[in-house]
Design a protein that fits this description.
Blueprint: E1 2-7, E2 20-25, E3 28-32, H1 38-44, E4 53-55, H2 61-64, H3 67-76, E5 84-87, H4 90-104, E6 112-115, E7 122-126, E8 138-143, E9 147-150, H5 158-165, E10 172-177, E11 201-205, E12 219-220
Parallel strand pairs: 3-4, 4-5, 5-6, 9-10, 10-11, 11-12
Antiparallel strand pairs: 1-2, 2-3, 7-8, 8-9
Length: 229
Amino acid sequence: MQIKFLGTGGAFDTDYRNSAALLEFRDINLLIDCGFTVFSTLVEKNLTQKIDHIILTHLHNDHCGSLANLLLYKHIVEKSKRPIILYPSEQFKQQLYKFLELQVKDPDKYAEFVPLDQVEGIIPIDTYGQHSEGLQTYAYIFDNESRIVYSGDLSKPEVLFERLERLPGKKTSVFHDITFNSDNTGHTYYKKLLPYINGIDMYGYHCDPTQSPQDNPIRLVFHEKALMA
């Protein structure tokens, strides 16, 4: 299992591109999120052909804004097989389907929609309303020989770590959105993550790394070259 980030920035941190990652997991190549900078990054790095599965944390533009571009490109330019979009709930699928209908008219022509529970080892964590009021969001746990955790956008980390604590012990890497502004209520303030860093590899993303304070002990994905695509 290997994860490589395509960007580590937040919605307005354009110098660092939208947070998204490619994950090699159980013989699939999974794109996690597809914000407005992601399609161009994939083309630039010659990675579009590698993607066969897609999963989204939520439907904000910095997490799904170029998904239609990617689907059209794979169909029209690559003439490749439809990528599989994994969805964690029927309601989320319907929201995503309506979003794509505005851009591609017939989403089924460009993607195959498959319930997440048909793929072994991916655990969705329902984080509804914990990033933006009334918005459906998800965190995901990818469980194999080791474990990778991807928070999505989450202001309160308790629900994620409570779920992790109920799982058998295993080497675990947590990739968690992070903010260095205590007034930011849409993401997790870095000090709220400190109680959870023992016994796991913790990395922060979805931030401007230049704003990291001197007392922040959490490694930032942006500075970890081995984690960048």
